[in-house]
Amino acid sequence: MPSDGSGPKPIERPRMPVKITDVATLAGVAPMTVSRVINTPDRVSPATAAKVRVAIDRLGYVPNLIAGGLSSRRSRMVAAVVPTIAHPMFADVVQTFSDAMRVAGYEVMLSLSGYGAIDKEALLRTLLGRRPDALLIAGAAHTPGAFQMISEAHIPVVEIWDVSNHPIDMLVGFDHEEVGRDVARFFLAKGHKRFATISADDPRALQRTRTFAETMRRAGCIGMGEATVKAPSTITAGRRAMADLLPALAGDTAPLALFCSSDLLAFGALVEAGLLGLRSPEHLSVCGFGNFELSAASEPAFTTVSVEGAEAGQIAAGFVLQRLTGNGPRPEGRWHVPFRIVERRTT
Amino acid sequence: MPSDGSGPKPIERPRMPVKITDVATLAGVAPMTVSRVINTPDRVSPATAAKVRVAIDRLGYVPNLIAGGLSSRRSRMVAAVVPTIAHPMFADVVQTFSDAMRVAGYEVMLSLSGYGAIDKEALLRTLLGRRPDALLIAGAAHTPGAFQMISEAHIPVVEIWDVSNHPIDMLVGFDHEEVGRDVARFFLAKGHKRFATISADDPRALQRTRTFAETMRRAGCIGMGEATVKAPSTITAGRRAMADLLPALAGDTAPLALFCSSDLLAFGALVEAGLLGLRSPEHLSVCGFGNFELSAASEPAFTTVSVEGAEAGQIAAGFVLQRLTGNGPRPEGRWHVPFRIVERRTT
DNA sequence: GTGAAAGCGCTAACAG
DNA sequence: CTGTTAGCGCTTTCAC
């Protein structure tokens, strides 16, 4: 860039954001005192604190948590990684977890990892680069690189959604195979002899539906089809899968037991079946997964598996906070989230 | 704490996270060179870069972005605040915006503000305390305190979802009243004479439905009921509202024009109406809002208003990046997100 | 209860 | 292309 002779060095910025020294000067105290008023008010005399607060308000001071974090080595932030929050369980977990952490003075930095599209290791690197005080992460299957990065961060980690035999640290999840087995038993108890599944192709969904299918088969039932759709699940995918499945069902009398890995798929299946005059539960017994509002509020309301996401979030926050505040014994750090089959009109 | 004579000062920590000087030492270069390899690789000779990369891998170095951010005064992070991402438009905006920002090297810190439960000013304070490089925020109605905080942060701000006459900075939204008017015209063109609305009680939803009602009335139509439900919208709320509305509808022949502020409400209304034998569009013309998958994939697929959330996210990211990288002229910073009525089987 | 000094881990700015 | 110096704004630690 050519010099223009008038010698303009960078123009002074509009007015740098207010910092702690500005507040200290205005209040006539040391910066450290301002810091105490903000972080440990009980160690400051009420009179001083009042003066300082006035100065803070007058200047509109917003403490720089970046600087504070660097100095204290605590970012007061926890990172959360989930594939999506379209799923009610994730949504509940994240919401509850965030609220609980916020109350304790921590902010949650939420990242959506999607289903496979994103480079999870790169995501983790930038996340951990911000030095979160803890990490909440969905899914217990990590690449070796990811596993190592997480371990070396030396922070409390809670894995949710899945149970694993080798948790990195703490764990709040449930056994997806157990879900599949329970749903199978539920159908078997009703005397079903034929079954089918519609599943998203993500590992957990497949665990549920495959274990279901296996259990049914072992009990002597006949599989009429196991459709797989690309994650994430959608209503449309459920409709398509059902349309593919339907021909195989023609001419049967006893209702088919259909287990879908998501309520969206189940709803789609019901819509499509309904179009061809197949009613549930007369011709078709359907069980979804997730207890989306749709399962309770659509017509007919359909049977599904409910997982207590809110409880999971609460427990996860408790685990993290106990570790962070160091009170009490180091928690065992394993929690099986309860799930249950909510029976409605389609079974 | 009593001294025990053996003089143990704080035990050395397990092994402090690797830092830039460790990498520099191992690679036999200055810390600054390591920094360059990471941030501006093209200013380092390939040979040196290779050495440094080896050291980085060997040590599993994860750069401390907190420290980097403090030093460079750029956090490489942007904050996003939306009430919920249950709504497809928000979900799309956030997803697209995040992806676009990530590609440019920025991480998005997502916060869900809910509908009123949370102290938005407190949320903003902690968010801005982390010195995001930019802010994406839904809704153009802010408290004076919030407005001031945002302004004084001196960062690019994009307000989405709403148009406002006094944007803080940049704006990507649409006119909710215009939506209401357009939907009214749509129904009027079909010859409807009676209408009703079901709306969530958040300001934007009310703008849409009230403007709709007003336009209908001005055209000589008769209002048969304007139900309001608490935000956020749910299917169940739609069902209840419809149940309340139904008695007023008895005995009429020409189909009622029903506009719902959300597809969830519209779906609930359709379910409830269907239960009483009312079919759409024969007895009831329904238009929702949001173009949720549900509107296209349920039966009957229903008419709705689609807002191009993905486009909004893309535009917003473009605005922010242009400001951040300083290339090109300061963008005008206003964008009307297109919306359109997607006509399906219920009208 | 308050203050002064030192430094968190990194990068801007300026040499060489 | 690479290194040196001097902070970023706060909190830790230790004095008073």
Labels describing this entry:
DNA-binding, 13 helices, 434 Repressor (Amino-terminal Domain), alpha/beta, 6-stranded parallel beta sheet, 4-stranded parallel beta sheet, 347 residues, homodimer, Rossmann fold, 3 domains, disordered N terminus
Task: Tell me what the structure shows.
Chain A has 347 residues and is of the alpha/beta class. The first copy, chain A, folds into 3 domains: 20-63, lambda repressor-like DNA-binding domains (434 Repressor (Amino-terminal Domain), Orthogonal Bundle), CATH 1.10.260.40; 76-173 and 310-338, Response regulator (Rossmann fold); 176-306, Response regulator (Rossmann fold), CATH 3.40.50. Chain A has helices at 20-27, 31-39, 46-59, 65-72, 88-103, 120-129, 144-152, 176-189, 203-218, 235-245, 263-275, 293-297, 309-325; strands at 77-82, 107-112, 134-138, 157-160, 170-173, 194-200, 222-229, 256-260, 284-287, 304-307, 334-336, 339-342. At the A-B interface, helix 4, helix 5, strand 2, helix 6 and helix 7 of A face helix 4, helix 5, strand 2, helix 6 and helix 7 of B. The structure holds a DNA duplex (16 and 16 nucleotides).
Tally of DSSP helical segments of chain A = 13
Given helix and strand content, the structural type of chain A is: alpha/beta
Strand content of chain A: 15-25%
Q: Kindly report how far apart the N and C termini of chain A lie.
A: 75 Å
SSE sequence of chain A, one letter per element:
HHHHEHEHEHEEHEHEHEHEHEHEE
Overall strand count of chain A: 12
> What top-tier CATH class of the largest domain in chain A fits best?
Alpha Beta
Per CATH, the superfamily of the largest domain in chain A is Response regulator
CATH topology of the largest domain in chain A: Rossmann fold
Q: What composes the largest sheet of chain A?
A: 6 strands, parallel
Whole-number mean pLDDT of chain A: 89
Oligomeric category: homodimer
Strand order in space, largest sheet of chain A: 2-1-3-4-5-11
